[in-house]
Amino acid sequence: MPIVRLPHLLTPTLLVLVLMLLVPTSSDETDCNTLRMGQFICPNPSLRQIDPKTQQLRGCTRENKARVWCIAAEGIICSETKNNSFTRELPCKWTNGYHFDTALLLSVFLGMFGADRFYLGYPALGLLKFCTLGFMFLGQLVDVILIATQVVGPADGSAYIIPYYGPVITVVRSDNWTYRLPQDNW
């Protein structure tokens, strides 16, 4: 069998072409922060990212943001980690140790003495309620409603500790940039 010799310049060119086909390119990688809904799941359900003490995402800051691990859909490779996991900043509620159920129970049973306001960090209002017997029990009733609807919260601006899937009220506000779709019965 005769030996076939390739021209001298053709051998390095073939070697480069074969290497280019074998080495994966970075065009398969995606910036996972630009993924659309349905292309990822956040937070990663296999990791325990809910803090049992605060019932919020671990690492929640005063700015109400937490960085959590997420998973991209199958076949998507993230450019940051070179696999299908990545981190994303999610909203959370920063807590500082005030329990919703404790505040509500104090308001119902000891609200006439201002115990709920002392607990939440409002000593002046607590003393005023104590001296006036809860504004003759009318202030106690108002405070029960305000705490139950989560209008009144802790004085330091933190959120109540409520179970993650518990009775959390989220207020939806509108401004000049809010667009309301008309209903059929309007």
From TrEMBL:
<keyword id="KW-1133">Transmembrane helix</keyword>
<dbReference type="GO" id="GO:0016020">
    <property type="term" value="C:membrane"/>
</dbReference>
<protein>
    <submittedName>
        <fullName>AGAP007485-PA-like protein</fullName>
    </submittedName>
</protein>
<keyword id="KW-0472">Membrane</keyword>
<comment type="similarity">
    <text>Belongs to the TM2 family.</text>
</comment>
<feature type="domain" description="TM2">
    <location>
        <begin position="99"/>
        <end position="145"/>
    </location>
</feature>
<keyword id="KW-0732">Signal</keyword>
<dbReference type="InterPro" id="IPR050932">
    <property type="entry name" value="TM2D1-3-like"/>
</dbReference>
<keyword id="KW-0812">Transmembrane</keyword>
<dbReference type="Pfam" id="PF05154">
    <property type="entry name" value="TM2"/>
</dbReference>
<keyword id="KW-0325">Glycoprotein</keyword>
<dbReference type="InterPro" id="IPR007829">
    <property type="entry name" value="TM2"/>
</dbReference>
<feature type="signal peptide">
    <location>
        <begin position="1"/>
        <end position="27"/>
    </location>
</feature>
